[in-house]
What does this fold into?
Amino acid sequence: QEQLVETGGGLVQAGESLRLSCAASGRAANVFNVVKMGWFRQAPGKEREFVAALTWNGGSTLYADSEKGRFTISRDNAKRTVYLQINSLKPEDTAVYFCAADDRLGRSLSTQSGDYGTWGQGTQVTVSS
It folds into this structure.
C-alpha cells in the first residue's frame, strides 16, 4: 500500500519556524529514491496550491514564486523522508500542508497537483499573529 505521512505541523506564532516531514512507507517507500517529491498547501476556502518540489536526488528544486526565500525543501533518501522548512511564518501560511510524489519518468519538476499520483493526508499549520 502506498503511503505518505506528514508530521510536524502545529500552532505557532508569527515569525517562528517549522520543519514539516513526510515519511514514505509501503510502495511509496520502494520507489521513493527515484521519484520527484513536492509540497502543496490548502488554506480554508481556497484551492490547493503548489509550494515546492525537488528531484529524486535533491539536485534540482522548484519553488512557488511567493515562497522563495522562506521555504526550503530537502530530502533524505536513506530515511525515505522529504522535508519542508518554513521560516518567518506568517498568518497567511495557515493551511493544511500535503506532500506528494510525482513518479512520471523523464519529466521536469511540476507545479501541477494533477502530476502527483500519491498524496499524504496532510498536516495542519496554524500561524497566529
